[in-house]
Design goal:
Blueprint (H helix, E strand, L loop, with lengths): L1 E5 L14 H13 L5 E3 L2 E8 L2 E8 L6 H12 L6 E7 L7 E4 L8 H10 L5 E6 L11 H5 L5 H34 L20 H8 L5 H6 L1
Helix pairs in contact: 1-5, 2-3
C-alpha cells in the first residue's frame, strides 16, 4: 500500500489558506480516482483508492499542521508502511506560486508539518510534492506564519484549479511510472525554442522586401505581417 498525505489545518476558517494546498490537492486526487468516502481514523481522515493498479491510502491529518506527524506515525505503524511508500503534499514558500516539484526526501526547511513528520517517523527520506506558494509580496508587514495562514489572493484563487489539476496528474504519474520518472517529467524545464534561421544573403542593390511583396498574392500580405 502507498500512502499519499496532504497537509493542512482542519477548521473551516483555514480552508482557503495557502498552508492548506496539500488538503486541496489530496481532495482533488480522491475525486479524480474515485476514492472511497473519507473516514475519521488515526487522528485524521483516510480514504482508500486505486491508481494504476496500486492500492493507495489517502491521509489528511486533523491534528493541525504542527502535529501532522502524530497522525502519519499512527497510519504507518498500523499498516506497516515503509517510509519509501510515503509521499507528502505540502505548500512550499521557496517555490514561486504555481510551481510544482517532486523531491525524494530532505530536511523540513522550516516547514512545521514536515518537521513533525520527521520527528515522529524518525527519518526524512520520504517523497514530497512541493506546491509553490511564493514568498510574501513586498510591503507584507506580518510574520511568515501570518502569510502562510492567509488566503490566496483573488488572482491566485482563479489560477488554483489548473495548478491543483497539474498536481493530481503528477501524483498519478508517480503511481504509474514511479517517483524517478515522474520527477523527470515534472521537474525538467522545457528547452527554449530554436531561433529561426537567418535570412539568405542578398546581392548588393537588390530589394528583397519589394520582391517578397511581388511574390505574395496582391502584394500586400507580407507587409501586413511585418507591420
Amino acid at each position: 500500500m502507498f500512502v499519499i498525505a496532504g497537509l493542512g489545518n482542519p477548521e473551516p476558517r483555514y480552508a482557503r489558506n495557502r498552508h492548506n494546498i496539500g488538503f486541496e490537492v489530496v481532495q482533488a486526487f480522491a475525486e479524480a480516482v474515485g476514492a472511497d468516502p473519507w473516514r475519521s481514523k488515526f487522528q485524521g481522515e483516510i480514504a482508500r483508492c486505486q491508481a494504476s493498479n496500486v492500492d493507495v491510502l489517502l491521509v489528511r491529518p486533523m491534528t493541525f499542521m504542527n502535529r501532522s506527524g502524530e497522525s502519519l506515525q499512527a497510519v504507518m505503524s498500523f499498516f506497516r508502511i515503509p517510509v519509501s511508500d510515503l509521499l507528502v503534499v505540502h505548500d512550499e514558500l521557496d517555490l514561486p506560486f504555481g510551481t510544482l516539484r517532486l523531491k525524494p526526501g530532505g530536511g523540513h526547511a522550516g516547514h512545521n508539518g514536515l518537521r513533525s513528520i520527521i520527528q515522529h517517523i524518525g527519518q526524512p527520506d520520504f517523497a514530497r510534492l512541493r506546491c509553490g506558494i511564493g514568498k510574501p509580496p513586498p510591503g507584507f508587514a506580518g510574520e511568515m506564519a501570518d502569510y502562510v495562514l492567509s488566503d490566496f489572493s483573488a488572482e491566485e484563487r482563479d489560477a488554483l484549479p489548473e495548478i491543483v489539476d497539474r498536481a493530481v496528474k503528477a501524483l498519478r504519474l508517480v503511481m504509474r511510472r514511479g517517483l524517478g520518472e515522474a520527477s523527470k517529467a515534472l521537474n525538467t524545464r522545457p528547452k527554449p525554442p530554436k531561433p529561426p534561421d537567418p535570412p539568405p544573403a542578398t546581392e548588393p542593390g537588390s530589394n528583397p522586401t519589394h520582391k517578397q511583396a511581388e511574390d505574395t498574392p496582391e502584394g500586400v500580405a507580407s507587409f501586413t505581417e511585418k507591420s
